[in-house]
Design a protein that fits this description.
7-stranded mixed beta sheet; globular; mainly beta; 4-stranded antiparallel beta sheet; 0% helix
Length: 126
């Protein structure tokens, strides 16, 4: 059974940093594209960033480019999201997701991701 568990969410002041983690279990994730999405109250879930199975390629939403970095440690089956220069607009529940097809390409499309974690809350105060 696929399981994704996010952690690291917190309340932080604007300009601060956080690192989110997503621990995966149930399969070997080294062959799968993984991503982070977020959902603010009253808004649609939106793409944040994705990372290829090898970690060699990444893709980011324009709103976080240059501030957020996604990485992975395949030996630990864990994906990370380093968030710097946080803004109040980054406040949301952050979700980890994985595509079930091996060696799949990066995509921003939510429907292309098959498994999701329960989310972790990030709140940025002004």
């Amino acid at each position: 059974q696929v399981q994704l568990v996010e952690s690291g969410g917190a309340l932080v002041q604007a300009g601060g940093s956080l690192r989110l983690s997503c621990a995966a279990s149930g399969r070997t994730y080294s062959r799968y594209t993984m991503a982070w999405f977020r959902q603010a109250p009253g808004k649609e879930r939106e793409f944040v960033g994705a990372i290829s199975w090898s970690g060699g390629s990444t893709l980011y939403a324009d709103s976080v480019k240059g501030r957020f970095t996604i990485s992975r440690d395949n030996a630990k089956n864990t994906v990370y999201l380093q968030m710097n220069s946080l803004k109040p607009g980054d406040t949301a529940i952050y979700y980890c997701a994985v595509r079930s097809a091996i060696w799949s390409s990066l995509t921003t499309q939510r429907e292309m991701y098959d498994y999701w974690g329960q989310g972790t809350q990030v709140t940025v105060s002004s």
